[in-house]
Amino acid sequence: MMRLIYSLAFSLGFTEWKLKETPVEIFKTVKDMRKGHALDLGCGEGEHVIALAKKGWQVTGVDFVRKAIENAKNAAEKSGVADKTEFLVGDVARLEKLKLSEFDVAFDIGCFHLLNEADQEAYITGVSHVLKRSAIFLLYAFTPRKQGRREVGFYPAELERKFSKFFTLQKCEERTYWRFPANWYWFRRK
Ligand SMILES: C[S@@+](CC[C@H](N)C(=O)[O-])C[C@H]1O[C@@H](n2cnc3c(N)ncnc32)[C@H](O)[C@@H]1O
Questions:
Q1: Fewer CB within 10 Å: N-end or C-end of the chain?
Q2: For the chain, domain boundaries
Q3: Mutate which of 114, 138, 139, 180 to test ligand 1's pocket (most atoms within 8 Å of Cβ)?
Q4: Span 2-189: which CATH code?
Q5: Is residue 169 a contact partner of residue 156, using CB atoms and an 8 Å limit?
Protein backbone atom coordinates (compact mmCIF):
# COMPACT_ATOMS: atom_id res chain seq x y z
CA MET A 1 0.00 0.00 0.00
CA MET A 2 2.75 2.44 1.03
CA ARG A 3 4.67 1.56 -2.13
CA LEU A 4 1.61 2.32 -4.24
CA ILE A 5 1.07 5.67 -2.52
CA TYR A 6 4.69 6.73 -3.04
CA SER A 7 4.78 5.40 -6.63
CA LEU A 8 1.77 7.55 -7.39
CA ALA A 9 3.26 10.55 -5.60
CA PHE A 10 6.51 10.34 -7.60
CA SER A 11 4.65 9.80 -10.91
CA LEU A 12 2.49 12.85 -10.28
CA GLY A 13 5.40 14.90 -9.00
CA PHE A 14 3.62 15.31 -5.66
CA THR A 15 6.70 15.34 -3.43
CA GLU A 16 5.70 17.96 -0.89
CA TRP A 17 7.82 16.35 1.82
CA LYS A 18 11.07 17.33 0.12
CA LEU A 19 13.40 19.56 2.08
CA LYS A 20 14.76 22.62 0.29
CA GLU A 21 18.31 21.55 1.02
CA THR A 22 20.19 18.60 2.40
CA PRO A 23 20.07 19.05 6.19
CA VAL A 24 23.16 20.51 7.85
CA GLU A 25 22.88 17.70 10.39
CA ILE A 26 24.15 15.30 7.72
CA PHE A 27 27.10 17.46 6.72
CA LYS A 28 28.01 18.21 10.35
CA THR A 29 27.90 14.51 11.21
CA VAL A 30 30.36 13.51 8.48
CA LYS A 31 32.52 16.66 8.63
CA ASP A 32 35.30 15.14 10.71
CA MET A 33 35.07 11.63 9.30
CA ARG A 34 37.40 10.15 6.73
CA LYS A 35 35.40 10.15 3.48
CA GLY A 36 33.98 6.69 3.03
CA HIS A 37 30.79 4.92 2.09
CA ALA A 38 27.37 6.23 3.14
CA LEU A 39 23.89 4.75 2.88
CA ASP A 40 20.63 6.71 2.44
CA LEU A 41 17.55 4.65 3.39
CA GLY A 42 14.38 5.70 1.57
CA CYS A 43 16.41 8.04 -0.63
CA GLY A 44 13.52 9.14 -2.88
CA GLU A 45 14.92 10.98 -5.91
CA GLY A 46 18.39 11.03 -4.43
CA GLU A 47 18.99 14.71 -3.61
CA HIS A 48 20.84 13.95 -0.37
CA VAL A 49 22.83 11.11 -1.92
CA ILE A 50 24.00 13.49 -4.63
CA ALA A 51 24.77 16.30 -2.16
CA LEU A 52 26.98 14.01 -0.09
CA ALA A 53 28.64 12.52 -3.18
CA LYS A 54 29.58 16.06 -4.20
CA LYS A 55 31.50 16.28 -0.90
CA GLY A 56 33.59 13.29 -1.95
CA TRP A 57 31.66 10.44 -0.34
CA GLN A 58 30.69 7.23 -2.10
CA VAL A 59 26.92 7.03 -1.49
CA THR A 60 24.31 4.31 -1.96
CA GLY A 61 20.60 5.16 -1.98
CA VAL A 62 17.82 2.62 -1.53
CA ASP A 63 14.15 3.21 -2.28
CA PHE A 64 11.32 0.88 -3.24
CA VAL A 65 9.89 3.20 -5.92
CA ARG A 66 11.47 2.41 -9.31
CA LYS A 67 10.54 5.80 -10.78
CA ALA A 68 12.25 7.64 -7.91
CA ILE A 69 15.40 5.57 -8.39
CA GLU A 70 15.41 6.20 -12.16
CA ASN A 71 15.07 9.94 -11.53
CA ALA A 72 17.85 9.78 -8.94
CA LYS A 73 20.20 8.05 -11.40
CA ASN A 74 19.48 10.68 -14.05
CA ALA A 75 20.04 13.50 -11.55
CA ALA A 76 23.35 11.98 -10.43
CA GLU A 77 24.43 11.73 -14.07
CA LYS A 78 23.54 15.40 -14.67
CA SER A 79 25.35 16.46 -11.49
CA GLY A 80 28.50 14.64 -12.55
CA VAL A 81 28.52 12.23 -9.61
CA ALA A 82 27.29 9.05 -11.30
CA ASP A 83 30.60 7.36 -10.44
CA LYS A 84 30.26 8.31 -6.75
CA THR A 85 26.66 7.10 -6.41
CA GLU A 86 24.71 3.87 -6.54
CA PHE A 87 20.90 3.72 -6.53
CA LEU A 88 19.07 0.51 -5.77
CA VAL A 89 15.41 -0.41 -5.98
CA GLY A 90 14.71 -2.25 -2.76
CA ASP A 91 12.80 -2.48 0.48
CA VAL A 92 14.61 -0.96 3.47
CA ALA A 93 13.06 -3.70 5.61
CA ARG A 94 14.66 -6.38 3.38
CA LEU A 95 18.19 -5.04 3.06
CA GLU A 96 19.69 -8.54 3.08
CA LYS A 97 18.27 -9.02 -0.43
CA LEU A 98 20.45 -6.18 -1.76
CA LYS A 99 23.81 -7.77 -0.88
CA LEU A 100 25.18 -4.43 0.31
CA SER A 101 28.76 -3.84 1.37
CA GLU A 102 29.71 -2.22 4.70
CA PHE A 103 29.01 1.44 5.41
CA ASP A 104 30.75 4.08 7.52
CA VAL A 105 27.57 6.05 8.07
CA ALA A 106 23.86 5.69 7.26
CA PHE A 107 20.96 8.12 7.35
CA ASP A 108 17.21 8.12 6.97
CA ILE A 109 15.11 11.19 6.36
CA GLY A 110 11.45 10.38 6.81
CA CYS A 111 11.33 6.70 5.90
CA PHE A 112 11.60 4.65 9.12
CA HIS A 113 8.47 6.22 10.66
CA LEU A 114 6.44 4.93 7.70
CA LEU A 115 7.11 1.27 8.53
CA ASN A 116 4.95 -1.10 10.54
CA GLU A 117 6.32 -2.73 13.72
CA ALA A 118 7.57 -5.91 12.05
CA ASP A 119 9.31 -3.97 9.27
CA GLN A 120 10.87 -1.60 11.81
CA GLU A 121 12.45 -4.57 13.52
CA ALA A 122 13.70 -6.07 10.24
CA TYR A 123 15.03 -2.64 9.21
CA ILE A 124 16.98 -2.18 12.44
CA THR A 125 18.54 -5.64 12.14
CA GLY A 126 19.31 -5.05 8.45
CA VAL A 127 20.96 -1.67 9.06
CA SER A 128 22.96 -3.07 11.96
CA HIS A 129 24.37 -5.76 9.63
CA VAL A 130 25.60 -3.32 7.00
CA LEU A 131 27.09 -0.70 9.33
CA LYS A 132 30.66 -0.91 10.57
CA ARG A 133 31.18 -1.05 14.32
CA SER A 134 30.90 2.41 15.92
CA ALA A 135 29.38 3.84 12.75
CA ILE A 136 26.76 6.56 13.10
CA PHE A 137 23.18 6.06 12.01
CA LEU A 138 21.37 9.38 11.66
CA LEU A 139 17.59 9.28 11.72
CA TYR A 140 15.02 12.01 11.16
CA ALA A 141 11.58 10.89 12.37
CA PHE A 142 8.29 12.43 13.45
CA THR A 143 7.33 12.66 17.09
CA PRO A 144 3.89 11.11 17.80
CA ARG A 145 0.80 12.62 16.24
CA LYS A 146 -2.41 11.49 14.59
CA GLN A 147 -2.36 11.13 10.80
CA GLY A 148 -5.94 10.36 9.86
CA ARG A 149 -6.79 7.36 12.01
CA ARG A 150 -3.16 6.31 12.24
CA GLU A 151 -0.72 7.24 14.98
CA VAL A 152 2.67 8.13 13.46
CA GLY A 153 6.01 8.94 15.02
CA PHE A 154 7.97 8.12 18.16
CA TYR A 155 9.08 9.45 21.50
CA PRO A 156 12.85 9.34 21.97
CA ALA A 157 12.65 6.73 24.75
CA GLU A 158 10.61 4.46 22.50
CA LEU A 159 13.12 4.71 19.66
CA GLU A 160 16.03 4.24 22.02
CA ARG A 161 14.42 0.97 23.18
CA LYS A 162 13.69 -0.22 19.63
CA PHE A 163 17.31 0.32 18.54
CA SER A 164 18.97 -0.73 21.80
CA LYS A 165 19.98 -4.25 20.73
CA PHE A 166 22.42 -2.90 18.13
CA PHE A 167 22.70 0.85 18.75
CA THR A 168 23.36 3.36 21.50
CA LEU A 169 21.45 6.63 21.32
CA GLN A 170 24.00 9.42 21.54
CA LYS A 171 21.97 12.54 20.90
CA CYS A 172 18.48 13.67 20.01
CA GLU A 173 17.45 17.14 18.80
CA GLU A 174 14.00 18.59 18.15
CA ARG A 175 13.06 20.13 14.81
CA THR A 176 10.06 20.67 12.55
CA TYR A 177 10.01 18.32 9.57
CA TRP A 178 7.71 19.29 6.71
CA ARG A 179 5.35 21.07 9.14
CA PHE A 180 5.27 18.56 11.96
CA PRO A 181 7.34 18.05 15.13
CA ALA A 182 10.22 15.67 14.60
CA ASN A 183 13.56 14.67 16.07
CA TRP A 184 17.02 13.99 14.74
CA TYR A 185 18.59 10.95 16.37
CA TRP A 186 22.26 10.08 16.37
CA PHE A 187 22.70 6.37 17.02
CA ARG A 188 26.06 4.64 17.26
CA ARG A 189 26.43 1.01 16.15
CA LYS A 190 27.54 -1.09 19.15
C1 LIG B 1 8.88 11.14 2.96
S2 LIG B 1 9.77 10.40 1.65
C3 LIG B 1 11.43 10.97 1.97
C4 LIG B 1 12.34 10.79 0.78
C5 LIG B 1 13.75 11.31 0.97
N6 LIG B 1 14.40 10.68 2.09
C7 LIG B 1 13.77 12.81 1.12
O8 LIG B 1 14.25 13.30 2.14
O9 LIG B 1 13.32 13.50 0.18
C10 LIG B 1 9.87 8.68 2.14
C11 LIG B 1 10.61 7.81 1.16
O12 LIG B 1 10.72 6.50 1.69
C13 LIG B 1 10.46 5.56 0.67
N14 LIG B 1 10.01 4.31 1.33
C15 LIG B 1 8.96 4.15 2.18
N16 LIG B 1 8.92 2.89 2.62
C17 LIG B 1 9.97 2.24 2.05
C18 LIG B 1 10.45 0.91 2.12
N19 LIG B 1 9.85 -0.02 2.87
N20 LIG B 1 11.56 0.58 1.41
C21 LIG B 1 12.18 1.52 0.63
N22 LIG B 1 11.76 2.80 0.53
C23 LIG B 1 10.67 3.15 1.24
C24 LIG B 1 9.41 6.23 -0.21
O25 LIG B 1 9.34 5.69 -1.51
C26 LIG B 1 9.91 7.67 -0.19
O27 LIG B 1 10.83 7.92 -1.21
A1: N
A2: 2-189
A3: 114
A4: 3.40.50.150
A5: yes
